[in-house]
C-alpha cells in the first residue's frame, strides 16, 4: 500500500484539486495507515487484502469473498464515478479492475516484481495500462506495459554528512545497515549475532532488529568488549529516520522486495540482498536481476550465516568494490516513479 500512497501524494502535488479515495480490503491496517498518511476517504471490499498462504479455512473462504467483492466493487465504482483508478496489483485488484473494465473506467495497474503474481497477470489483461518496476516484466503485458520504477519515499534534500552525524558515524567509519523490511527477520538477526564480534572491528553497525529481535540483539551487544559496544546501534525499526539511514549507509544488508530494491537504487548504495525464500520466489528474481546488472550481491536465504556475512562484508569493505556496485545501482534508480505514475493516471483520467 505504500507505493499506492506515494502515487496519491504525487497526484495531489500535481493537481491539488483532485478528489481521491482509497479502496482497501478486509484484512490489514490499511484504514488506519491511510488516515494517518493522507486522510483519504476509505472504502472496504469484502475480499481480504492478502490471499491466505496456509492450509486453513481461508482457502475456502477467500474465493467466496472474491466472488462477493465483484458486485460490491461494481456498485462502489458506480457510486464514486472515478475518472480513473490506480492499483498496486495483488488479490484485491481482481474485482476492482474487473468492475472498472465493466463500467468503462480506465485503470492503471502497477507490478513491482520481476515476476508478476498470478493476480496481477490476470488483471493486467483487463487493465488499460500496466506499469512495471523491472524491464524484464514488460514481456508479460505486451504493448500496454511501460517501465515506471517503484513509487518510493523521497530522498530529496537529505544531506549525507548530516545523516551520518545523526547516527554517530564518524568520517572515517563505514556504516553497515541491516534490516529486513517491514518485519523482524530471524535469519538476519541470527547471522548478525554470530558475526558481530568480528564485524564491529571494521564496521559501525546499525541494526533494525524488529520488536521481537531487540532483546537478543541487546544481549549480543553486552557480550562485546566494552570499548566496541558503541559501534553497534540497535533499533526495533525506523520510521521518519529510515530515509536518513539509507543515505548514511555505506553498505546495506536487506531483503529484495520491490520497494527495498527501488530505494537502494534511488540512493545509489551497495547492498547484499538476501531474498525472502517464499511467496513464489518473487524476491529471488528481483535480487538476481540486480546482481546481473552489478548493482547488488545476492545471497540465498539458506546460505546466510555469520561466516557468510563476514565474508561478503569483508569483500565490500574495499571502497572501490562498493563504489562499483553503488554506481551500477544508481544507474538503475528511478526516484521519480511516483510522479511518472501520477502523470499517467491523470492522463487516463482526462482521456489524454
Summarize the structure in words.
The protein has 352 residues and is an alpha/beta fold. It has two domains: 2-152 and 335-349, Glycogen Phosphorylase B (Rossmann fold, 3-Layer(aba) Sandwich); 160-332, Rossmann fold (3-Layer(aba) Sandwich), CATH 3.40.50. Helices cover 45% and strands 12% of the residues. The chain contains 14 helices and twelve strands. It has helices at 2-14, 30-37, 58-80, 93-103, 118-126, 160-166, 186-199, 214-222, 242-248, 258-267, 282-292, 306-315, 319-332, 337-349; strands spanning 22-24, 42-44, 85-87, 107-111, 129-132, 145-147, 175-178, 204-208, 232-235, 251-254, 270-273, 297-298. A six-stranded parallel β-sheet has the order 9-8-7-10-11-12, sandwiched between helices. The chain has a four-stranded parallel β-sheet with strand order 3-4-5-6, sandwiched between helices. The radius of gyration is 21 Å and the shape is elongated. The model has no long low-confidence stretch (mean pLDDT 91).
Strand content: 5-15%
Count of DSSP-assigned helices: 14
State the distance separating the first and last CA atoms. Answer: 26 Å
CATH superfamily of the largest domain: Glycogen Phosphorylase B
Q: Low-confidence spans: pLDDT under 50, at least 5 residues?
A: none
Q: Summarize model confidence as the mean pLDDT.
A: 91
Strand order, main sheet: write it out. 9-8-7-10-11-12
Helix-residue proportion: 40-55%
Content-based structural category: alpha/beta
Task: Indicate the CATH architecture of the largest domain.
Answer: 3-Layer(aba) Sandwich
User: For the CA atoms, what is the radius of gyration?
Assistant: 21 Å
Major sheet size, sense and barrel closure: 6 strands, parallel
CA-based shape: elongated
- Total number of β-strand segments? 12
Main CATH class of the largest domain? Alpha Beta
CATH topology call of the largest domain: Rossmann fold
Give the topology string: H per helix, E per strand: HEHEHEHEHEEHEHEHEHEHEHEHHH
How many structural units, i.e. domains? Answer: 2
